Amino acid sequence: MGKPEHFADLPGADAQGDAVLRVRGLQTHFFTHGGVVRAVDGVDLDVRAGEIVGLVGESGSGKSITGFSVIGLIDEPGRIVAGSIRYGGRELVGLSERELQRLRGKEIAMIFQDPMMTLNPVLRVDTQMIEAIAAHERVSTAAARERALQALAMVGIPSPAERLLTYPHQLSGGMRQRVAIAIALLNRPKLIIADEPTTALDVTIQAQILHEVQKLCRETGTAMIWITHDLAVVSGLADRIAVMYAGRIVEAGSTAQVVRAPLHPYTQGLIHSIPTRATHGQLLQQIPGMTPSLLHLPAGCPFRPRCSRASDACLADPAPTHPAPGRSVRCWHPLEQAA
Question: CA quadruple 247, 248, 250, 252: dihedral positive or negative?
Fold first, then answer.
């Protein structure tokens, strides 16, 4: 399928080397009665035009809060306490809610894990898609409807004209998620944040959506952060992977580098827990223990209590190192040294 005319002139599509998003030292804390929860604790992240960056980690690692921080969806008792979020060279930290609303849906879009967080159950799909366009620009109803048809076709929805006339409850879970993705694409955003949007879908529908998303980013130049706990899924989708643990990115690099030659013991543990043909019939290797409470993190490296390579040096907090261009790791005993 060729690139639809409406999406052909997306800004940034030809600037593959430019960072659409640049996050530096991001800290998002939640101030609770039990103490301060450091949900995001010093995250650095770059996303370029047309690039898919996978943000991977267990539940509670800070992945979703990182995405919500970028788009300004942190509610009390949480708030960004430090760091910089620059989108297209513009600082987002400190913008008013009104200014953020101008960006949401237009410049930066978000796809939630549950499509019903995006879709209104009592409105038809065409009404919701047309309103999403009209909220940001003046267009005729006919032009908005045509754009909605193009967006539905781009995400592989058959008979898009018929789907426009349905209500969300009349669609399957996979179709609802495709509609949510299409709504995210309506206003030609330069950046999409996808928060585990295929977790609840069966593997066949998941594979179809992953294929469509990858194709869309290539065709339109849209940058994407794909948040997931499933390293197997993101390894076939993302250009680069950032692995999060306890609010920090502990390893980052190209997908091939991270999957084939992990540096951090936590990344290796995630890879070894994925079933493969070679491990058929065998017990998978598990990461011992549980993700630590962000209220009571251990001293030094947060992964130390679960790590087989831990030593006294790990009682001090490791700083990020860059063993190769485009790679980073926070570990006193990276696996590359053992090799």
Answer: positive
Q: Give the CATH number, domain containing residue 206.
A: 3.40.50.300
pTM: 0.86
Tens of each residue's pLDDT in the chain, 339 residues: 344 444 333 333 333 457 899 999 999 999 999 999 999 999 999 999 999 999 999 988 999 999 999 999 999 999 999 999 999 989 999 999 999 988 998 899 999 888 888 899 999 999 999 999 998 889 999 999 999 999 998 888 889 999 999 999 999 888 898 899 889 888 889 999 999 888 767 777 788 788 888 888 888 889 999 999 888 889 989 999 999 999 999 999 999 999 999 999 999 999 988 877 777 777 777 888 888 889 989 999 999 999 989 999 999 999 999 998 889 999 999 987 544
H or E element at residue 186: none
Q: How open is the CA angle 248-249-252, to the nearest 5 degrees? A: 175
Residue 19 backbone phi and psi in degrees, to 5: -80, 115
Provide the b/e sequence for 242-279 (b: ≥16 CB within 10 Å): bbbbbbbbbbbbbbebbbeebbbbbbbbbbeeeeeeee
* Position 33 in a domain: yes
- What is the count of structural domains for the chain? 1
